[in-house]
Amino acid sequence: MELDSFVYFDGLSAAGDLTMPFPDTVKYCILGISVTLLLLALGILAWQVFRCCSQKYTTYMRQDTVNNDQLYSDKKSGTARIYSGAPSTRVENVNTEVRRLSRCLSQASLPSSGSVQADGEMEEQANNTKVEGTLRFSIYYDQLQSQLVVTVLQVEGLLEQSPTRILQPFVKLRLMWSNSEEVEVEECIDEEVRDFDKFSRHSVLGEVRVPLGQLNISYPLELQEDLMIPQKDLVGKVLLSLRILPTSRRLEVGLLKVRTAHSEISSDAALYARISVQCNQSKLRYQKTSAVARCLVTVFNEVAMFSLPEFPLEQCKILVSVYEMRTAKRSPKHLIGQLTVGKEKSSEDKHWSVMMCSVRQPIAKWHGLLI
User: Membrane-spanning regions, if any (predicted)?
Assistant: First the structure.
């Protein structure tokens, strides 16, 4: 019995020597490395907790700012209405991103007095070209069917023009491209937000211009743009002839040719022009040309004669409006474009000046057809 106990305790002593084979120096090194790693982990944990707390504080501050801005905008646009349509999946607000970047750049640099004045002028010019309201729409080009699909989704922020009348807006789409050498037409899609009034003419509230060449519309792309003041586009040219007869006090306006941009021209499409003259605050009776089959260059060679009031002519304006109609069936006329030539009290058109210098001689000149 005593021999067995001695062997048992000797085995325990040998096992203790095998489990700790390292000297004390190595043990202290391992302990120091462990403590260092523990402190590093605690430092990283503290840094993450600090970042989390700071992000929450910033989020709360932004949320309060957004709420204040929303309250202010609600008070400011008390009469604004939202006209919504079908929802979509992707939003890309270009104007908001541009304004955000411009604010960041302006805060990073210290402007001088000259730059502050220039910024004021640019801001005033931007205010003159901007109207209240935004338009949200989507654009998609179907390559299989070769169709451009534009979906108007929502119009918001429109201010009531009259407290007694409710706005009934509708959108008119216009696609323009550049294929002609003579007529320079920008490639853009144009959406105009109009107000429908059955008792009077429609009034244009604003427009949005989107250049398709800068967008990837192989998939449905949703945009939200601010409404701008409508601008005129060049859609063709008109060869106009002017001649003045001072003795008989007559003015001859000759419509020679009309050149329009490339488009799908129907076989039964015809063009005609309406010419009106206003001199010295006196509006003369307008005259219409005959309808001519429409082509890329439509030839009229027609002259309209107008009797002028007393001389001298302090103010005279010639307005030529070109319309399209269908000869095969009854359909409403469609305005192609207009041009204006004349003389104001302080300035006059170059064509008018040459005509006044060349009395009794017809002077022909190309004019842009705008819409």
Answer: 28-50
What's the domain range around 297? 234-370
- Rounded distance between C-alpha atoms, residue 317 and residue 348, angstroms: 10
Whichever domain contains 136, its CATH number is 2.60.40.150
| CB contact set of 356 (below 8 Å; sequence gap of 6+) | 244
Q: How many domains, the chain?
A: 2
Is the whole model's pTM more than 0.70, yes or no? Answer: no
Q: Is residue 350 part of a domain?
A: yes
Tens-place pLDDT, residues 139-162: 999 989 989 999 999 998 887 666
| In a shared domain, residues 243 and 294 | yes
**Element containing residue 36 per DSSP (H, E):** helix 24-76
Q: Measured at the alpha carbon of residue 171, what is the angle toward residues 194 and 238, in degrees to the nearest 5?
A: 80
Q: Is residue 36 a part of any domain in this protein?
A: no
What share of the chain in percent tops pLDDT 70?
A: 64
Distance, CA of 86 to CA of 90 (rounded, Å): 13
